[in-house]
Amino acid sequence: MRTLLIGGVLAILAFGVSACGGSSGNSGSERALQREADEYQIDQIERTFHESMSKKDVNMMMSLWAPHATFTYGPGKTATGKTQIRTTWLKSPSFQHTKHWLSDHPAYKLRITINGDRGTLHFECHFIDLDTSEVDAVTAADMDVARVDGHWLITKMVGGTAELKT
Predict the structure, then answer these.
(1) Residue from 52, 156, 42, 157 nearest 110 by CA
(2) What domains, with CATH codes, occur in the chain?
(3) What pLDDT, in 10s, does the model give residues 53-77?
(4) What's the pTM value of the predicted model, to 2 decimals?
(5) How far is it, in rounded angstroms, from Cα 38 to Cα 116?
(6) Is 1 helix (H, G, I), strand (E, B) or coil?
């Protein structure tokens, strides 16, 4: 009886130790997996951004923005909120149907940072004229992004020019 009792206590202790060890071991790998998932979702912002311009799909573009986001697109020019940002994009050359542009980016210039539910995203846009196969414009975007209701969205974007180097 005594042997059975000692064996039972040891089994319970072994189970308890293994359960505790398993949770702390998984937390590091769970954090790494969450970070990888967050990086992927933020990277999708850049991909969808360029696809929306290439397709001239303003609804797709607006799906990337948080409700109270800001978009600075020139000195002293800032759109606030999704309505103003949408209007700004519709007036931009990249959404004009007279432009036959493909919006592309050099992947090696993409930068993502993450700190909890906030992060940053930087990339360049190369607008290739499909009629001439020439690069027509080069711009850059610096964004603050945040997880909003489980989705990564743009909260602030500052657009600018970039220099094309070969």
Answers:
(1) 42
(2) 34-161 (3.10.450.50)
(3) 889 999 999 999 999 999 999 888 9
(4) 0.77
(5) 9
(6) coil
